[in-house]
Amino acid sequence: LLSQRRQEERRRHRQQRVQQQELLLAERLGKHPLQNRWALWFFKNDKSKMWQANLRLVTKFSTVEDFWALYSHIQLASKLTSGCDYSLFKDGIEPMWEDSQNKRGGRWLITLAKQQRHTELDRFWLETLLCLIGEMFDDYSDEVCGAVINIRAKGDKIAIWTREAENQEGVTHIGRIYKEHLGLSQKVAIGYQAHADTATKSGSLAKTKFVV
């Protein structure tokens, strides 16, 4: 346990050094630094490979300008083939339940009907990304780990992942702000699932812990 903690501390120090160097560079270039450094991941469902082999890191960024440069160059989520995912997570957190910063957490889940892929999906995903990089969740932005979009034949899903499922106050605050930014009506309810529950049951059967 002690060696694990030391490794975690070293990893954090390395990330902090990289962030400081990037901030200095951004200032020199006249760019606008974000509060956190973010990593974009892409998952392509190749059944001949193990799950982790299908997941690859696309790039990392830490300024507003670099985010927009990236967003304008990657394929829109609505154009991805079924079985693909995009994930945007804080640097140092991998987009999987097993990551130490995710395992006690959960997700606010938005499930879209098939026809919404061509009307709402890209707008919802962009709004989700802007909520993350803009730290829109007030005092609870530190609770946010990242977000995932799943492109599936039965219906697409978007989720914001948080680090502590038992933090009811923080989780519900994030859910309310997120719902507001997506422009969802009060009549539409969205649910929060703990990863521990989702891991033992399929997503549709997992227990909903909170609703806003």
Automatic annotation (TrEMBL):
Matching InterPro entries: TIF_eIF4e-like, TIF_eIF_4E, TIF_eIF_4E_CS
Source organism, top-level taxon: Eukaryota
GO annotations of cellular component type: eukaryotic translation initiation factor 4F complex
Keyword flag Electron transport: no
Source organism of this protein record: Heliornis fulica
Entry keyword annotation includes Lyase: no
Similarity-based family: Belongs to the eukaryotic initiation factor 4E family.
Name of the molecule in the record: IF4E factor
One of the record's GO molecular function terms: RNA 7-methylguanosine cap binding
Pfam family for this entry, one: IF4E
Record's keyword terms, sorted: Initiation factor, Protein biosynthesis, RNA-binding
